[in-house]
Design goal:
This is Odorant receptor. This protein is mainly alpha-helical. Helix content is 76%, strand content 1%.
């Protein structure tokens, strides 16, 4: 009897260990897990009509740039919902007639500063929708081939294919897993959250229970609001996944070359250095720098729009939540906290990318040490000089438009610029809204 009890307890213990295990799986299992998550996130971005071809981007134009939604019923549904929501919220934001408010289902009927929030929703959805349309048009023109450089990762993380050593391959794989997992769940959760939000605005308004006609039309119009808001925000999040993973791919390749420079320096200390190693190393560095610079150059306007759209939306959310104090205290606090968290995460993301690029200075130091310790040929010296000039240049970094490069100081500049924008909103727009 005691043996039987121990057997049952042992089985239960192994069962719960399996469920609540926090152990890191072995390399092969984790490799398959990450590949599955990449494929799932890619399918989700295609389902939400963020991109048409996923990671299979090419520079060949197969469709007319304005015909990419010719037979796509879901994309037409998103477009119609966004247009209806923008027009409806714009009218309700300027409306003073109760009959119009009832037939358009005003969810903030007679709520403090409700017209301000409706106007802001109208402008925000319009901006995000136009940004989404611009991204789809660029994809239809074949401008996003640079995003497909890491599509080999869908089938596995082979160091030879990625041109990285095993350690950097594992680091890159773990980074891709974290980014993919986060974006995947955000895109899954946000549409139900938008639906819950739209119905909550209706049910939380006391006027809905006094006027059944208003409640009926408000509930009738709610699906268009949740659909337009959910799909436009998912478009920004989902396409950001492609950009981040592509840039991380190039940055980890550069990091691998910096590690290889350390290996060459260590070999030179033990008398194992050969000039042939330097001649093979220099073209790889130049090639990876060129690839990263090309990717950064092609995505510069997309990144500029990302920072501009996210900054303006979050700044105005903080302005409405902390300065104007619209609707109620709970909603204001949630609005301000959410917007501040997004701004902080964008700034930290810029700091991470900038810290990657500052490591190029270490490459310059290593090449200088190797040049001083060994007599190199004229060809090797010219290549080393070219790399040192490129690595030490002030233009290294992600291009944000044509006038800004993301570097180590970006976090401070980003926060300072957003504070100044908030001050401009407060001084110039605050009195008008009151």
């Amino acid at each position: 009897m005691a043996a039987k009890v121990r057997s049952v307890l042992s089985q239960q213990k192994s069962f719960f260990r399996k469920i609540y295990s926090f152990e890191i799986p072995n390399s092969k299992e984790f490799d398959e897990t990450v590949c599955n998550k990449i494929r799932q996130t890619e399918r989700l971005t295609i389902f939400f009509q963020i991109v048409r071809n996923g990671l299979n981007q090419s520079d060949s134009v197969e469709v007319n740039t304005f015909g990419f939604r010719r037979f796509n019923w879901l994309d037409w549904l998103i477009t119609i919902s966004c247009i209806i929501t923008v027009i409806r919220c714009g009218i309700l934001g300027k409306n003073t007639n109760d009959s119009v408010a009832i037939y358009l289902g005003d969810p903030l009927f007679r709520v403090k500063d409700g017209h301000v929030l409706l106007l802001w929703i109208s402008v925000a959805i319009l901006v995000m929708y136009l940004f989404r349309e611009w991204l789809l048009t660029l994809e239809a023109k074949g401008k996003f081939k640079v995003l497909s450089t890491w599509k080999v990762c869908r089938n596995g993380f082979n160091p030879v294919d990625l041109q990285m050593n095993e350690l950097n391959t594992k680091r890159f794989r773990f980074t891709i897993y974290l980014v993919s997992l986060t974006i995947y769940w955000v895109m899954l959760i946000f549409p139900p959250f938008c639906t819950l939000l739209s119905f909550s605005l209706v049910l939380a308004n006391p006027m809905m229970y006094q006027n059944p006609k208003l409640a009926f039309f408000a509930l009738l119009w709610s699906p268009t609001f949740s659909l337009s808001l959910g799909f436009t925000i998912n478009a920004i999040m989902g396409f950001g996944w492609y950009i981040m993973c592509s840039l991380y791919f190039h940055l980890y390749r550069l990091r691998d070359l910096i590690d290889y420079a350390d290996i060459l320096l260590n070999n030179s200390k033990h008398g194992l250095f050969a000039e042939k190693d330097m001649q093979l190393f220099c073209p790889k560095v130049i090639q990876h720098l060129n690839n990263f610079e090309a990717a950064s150059f092609k995505l510069r306007y997309v990144l500029l729009c990302y920072f501009f759209v996210i900054s303006c939306l979050c700044d105005f959310d903080i302005f409405l939540g902390t300065i104007i104090r619209i609707v109620n205290s709970l909603f204001c606090n949630l609005l301000a906290i959410g917007a501040f968290s997004i701004l902080l995460s964008v700034g930290i993301l810029g700091l991470i990318f900038g810290s990657f690029l500052t490591k190029l200075g270490r490459l310059t130091v290593r090449l200088h040490q190797l040049s001083c310790r060994h007599k190199l040929s004229i060809q090797s010296v010219s290549k080393v000089s070219e790399i040192m000039d490129r690595a030490a240049g002030p233009y290294n970094g992600l291009k944000i438009g044509d006038f800004l490069t993301l570097e180590k100081r970006f976090f401070i500049l980003f926060i300072a610029e957003n504070i100044s924008i908030l001050m401009l909103f407060t001084v110039n727009i605050g009195p008008l809204l009151h």
